[in-house]
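Morning!

This is the sequence you dropped in the shared folder:
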Amino acid sequence: MAYEPKNFDSLIGTKGFSDQLLKNHFTLYQGYVTNTNKVADALNAMLKEGKTATPEYAELKRRFGWEFNGMRLHEYYFGNITKGGKPIDKSTNLYKKIAADFGSYENWEKDFRAAGAMRGIGWVMLYYDKWADRLFNVWINEHDGGHLCGAIPLLVMDVFEHAYMIDYGLKRADYIEAFFKAIDWTIDPHIDSMFE
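The structure's back. Tokens below.
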């Protein structure tokens, strides 16, 4: 079963994100979808041909996680933003959990922004670890490394240069500000019920 790219054209016109930036970013995302399918197909073909002991198979097997996560992380990222943004509802269980785990919502935001401003390329994610009942802001360098196993991504921010350089050049803090103004904090009741 092939993956199909999701359509995020509804984000065109989001304040702080030029149409050109978004269109380029959508094209990049679609490349991850295409490559996820290509790598999966190649691995299946090599399996059928008995080529699983080859260096090519090993490299493709390693590459699959990078392509797949590149696809999925962009889906989370685009799914986190909306025109005009939607602020977090302070009566939600998630808001209360953020405040409890970080001391305040403001402390959480300061930590998330600080992680996004760190030197380097990658992602910043608000993760929930169900086992420990704890929230973490995490820096992910490459798509396939640094994730917290079993943790649930709740908010994803892309901080690779392609996410902001067309509009902001090297001013990543300005991009982070635009991202925060565009966050869609609409919380799925199923997700919110995890924090009861």
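Headline: The chain has seven helices and three strands.

More detail when I'm at my desk.
O.
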